[in-house]
Design brief:
The protein has 96 residues and is α+β, with helices and mostly antiparallel strands. It has one domain. 24% of the residues lie in helices and 24% in strands. The protein has a three-stranded antiparallel β-sheet, with no helix packed on it. Strand 2 and strand 3 form a beta hairpin. The longest helix is centred in the middle third of the chain and has 14 residues.
């Protein structure tokens, strides 16, 4: 019998992040951007909330991705955090 996965705690804070895709970045697909953003979050050691299940992943929600090849000044994503943090600290950590 297969062991049940560990249930993760619910997120305690959500942050909505606005970003722009300009210049050569507009040719990046949504999937490539999401993979790069997940890596950046992991490297910045941001206390992310994770999904429950056999393959947990960070809780990141994207709101309406722009088509590949078109520039965008306001795209949004929302991250769920496991700890309460100051939004300016997150911006500084991701900027590094």
């Amino acid at each position: 019998m297969r062991e049940q996965p560990e249930q993760q705690a619910p997120p305690v804070q959500r942050l909505r992040i606005r970003y722009a895709k300009r210049g050569r970045m507009r040719f990046t697909s949504h999937r490539d951007f999401s993979r790069a953003f997940e890596r950046a979050v992991f490297r910045a050691r941001i206390p992310m909330a994770y999904s429950s299940g056999f393959n947990p992943h960070p809780r990141i929600s994207y709101a309406g991705a722009a088509p590949t090849g078109s520039a965008s000044e306001a795209e949004f994503l929302e991250i769920a955090l496991a700890e309460v943090v100051v939004p300016d600290d997150i911006a500084r950590q991701l900027g590094r």
